[in-house]
Amino acid sequence: MGKATAVYMDYDNLYRSINESYSQFKTSEVVKKILEHLALGEENSVQLIKAFCDFKTANNEISDLQENLVELRHINSIGDGKTNASDLALAIDVIKSLYNTRKFEHYVIVSSDSDMLPLILELSYQDKEITLLYLESKVKKRYVESLKTRINVKKIEDILGVETYRPFDIEDIESSDEEKLKYLNCINKGMNRLFVKYGSKPLTVIYQKNILEFLNDESSFNLQPSDSSAILDYFKNEKLIIIKEVEVNIEDKETTRKANFINPEKLNELGLTLDEEINVKYETREESLV
């Protein structure tokens, strides 16, 4: 029988952080992976799981959490934006648990918020084993470093098997042909997939939303929506991607649409060669729209 373990999640903090840094995951999926990770250690006997959140902001995840036997503590936040309501409620609940007849030897705190420090110190004074699960992309480095000699700490990124999200720096793509080609190849491959899907028709209409989807769906890039938008804006500014008005037939009616194309002339000018031929081509050479 492993150590009696209680898992306390600042779900407001986790939900907001996952959506900002790892939007390819639902937060409830992250919780499931965390619980599976804890279950792998025979030293843990997880007997209590609680999540503290204003669930008005995460109501689409309630059923998933309940399926994983997570006790939900709805904390009604007053006003807009981040409040300390959830982490305060979590801390109060943990302290109350210390004086219950049901005792826990091991506390797992899931939060990247350094406001948890007083609670962690109190649990340490009470001679409890403590594990902090945090997102490296959101935590203060000095906070984690100060705790490493006192408690167990683990990055949630390691549990998810993802690289730590770093805010995208447009200078990386400005200064490196390799970086330009990485993203342009992704966009071109996505365009070519649609080219085949729509019957290999020239002037296949590729909208801006399609290009953003190509970039966001490539998991190895670990991009957030704002990153993908910055990359697309850069390519447009540099005329590597241009916009042309093309005629399309929709429900037997001729109309025009603004379609996106990779500009082969600009590629040649910069000496860049894509992995695949450009199949989605524009036919005219008038000045492109900007």
UniProtKB/TrEMBL annotation:
InterPro entries per the UniProt record, alphabetical: NYN
Gene3D superfamilies on file: 5'-nuclease
Lineage of source species: Bacteria, Bacillati, Bacillota, Bacilli, Bacillales
Domain NYN, chain residue ranges per copy: 5-138
Native organism: Cytobacillus stercorigallinarum
Annotated protein name in UniProt: NYN domain-containing protein
